[in-house]
Amino acid sequence: MSRPAVIFGGPSPEHDISVSTGLQACHVLDDVYAIYWSLSGRWFLVDPHLEVGDFAEGVPRKARELTFVATPDGGFLAKRKPLEISVAVLACHGAPGEDGTLQAALDLAQIRYTGPGASASALGMDKYAFGAVVAAAGLPTLPRVLLTDTPPGFDPPYIVKPRFGGSSIGIEVVDDHATAVALAATSPNLADGAVLEPFIAEARDLQIGVRTHPEPDLSLIEAPVRGEGILGYREKYLAWGGSGRVDRQLPADLPGDLVERIHTLARQVSELVGLRSVARIDFLERNGEVWVNEVNTIPGSLAAYLWPDLERRELLEGMIAEAAERPPRRFTTAGADGLALRAAGSVAAKLG
Ligand SMILES: Nc1ncnc2c1ncn2[C@@H]1O[C@H](COP(=O)(O)OP(=O)(O)O)[C@@H](O)[C@H]1O
Ligand SMILES: [Mg+2]
Questions:
Q1: How far apart are CA 195 and CA 128, in angstroms?
Q2: pLDDT tens by residue, 103-134
């Protein structure tokens, strides 16, 4: 009998949050494979009833190593036998589980999965590309540039963010461009590129969940309460790791027209990116002015807390049902070895 597989962990700076998100999903769903992706990038079948603490020293005891083979007859193999996976429930945060890498590998293995496809996932993880797409569509967003030797055309202070990152890791506020450049030269978190935007000290975060199944649906709007400075990794880990120890206003106390505006923007972003399953869209707001900040295509805790009236199980089962309905991505030559292009008479055209 095939069953869903929850995949979590991964060689990502957000590994620990992902373990928490993944185990929450395992505990809610009845009969699942729990696939732990280790920090060193290996795959293990683990007991779905484990707790976060069981991963404190890495791969838990009694874990069975799996082999992942990215071919249509491959997938996750235990002693050379593929696990029969109906749908992979992706609970990974950060690259390479949320940025399209894992999604593309699952496409090659013809395994259905929750969340958006490879290219939408990549767009969601790329703060520069995402900002550009949102701006090009005419939605309100703060000016965001790649950090280079040329100072930006807006005034400091600046906030510097890893171009590909999340959970506030590697984010810094700086007073001038030279400091940002110096930071980029030394910070490992900025090694793959950084974006720069105006730092709006008085801005607050507003966040909303979007679901695409059984029909497009928006969650309540949340206003996380941050301490000094930006909403940091620690606060996010506590909030979205499910400990509930962080202050948040849910629903945020907002005037009706602001709620409407956020709803409209959330629908637009969802369509622009091609979101699927459950995602969280983050905004910055100051005195009624709203900017689209970012999208999380696999949000912490799968954003379940944003729908307090929805059973977690229902949310997950909806994601699974949606993914099950969608055929795996098709490639022209899937299943047929040999020169498929020749059959179409297109080799000559291609070469000529
Ligand atoms: N331009 C900005 N001005 C003020 N605060 C910001 C700005 N951009 C981000 N922040 C704060 O920093 C946090 C992290 O930034 P974000 O862009 O969401 O990156 P991450 O992907 O790491 O979550 C936000 O939740 C918000 O509190
Ligand atoms: Mg964020």
A1: 6
A2: 999 999 999 999 999 999 999 999 999 999 99
Distance (Å) from CA 15 to ligand 1 centroid:
20
pLDDT per residue over 289-314, tens digit each? 999 999 999 999 999 999 999 999 99
Domain segments of the chain as ranges = 3-113, 144-198, 202-309
Query: Which sign does the torsion angle of CA 212, 73, 102, 78 carry?
Result: positive
pTM value is 0.91
> Measured from the CB, is residue 305 less than 6 Å from ligand 1?
no
Q: What are phi and psi of 23, to 5 degrees?
A: -70, -35
Q: Which amino acid is at 29?
A: L
State the distance from the centre of ligand 1 to the C-alpha of 284, rounded, in angstroms: 8
| Reported CATH class of domain 3-113 | alpha beta
Ligand 1 atom with the shortest distance to the CA of 293? 17
CATH code, 202-309: 3.30.470.20
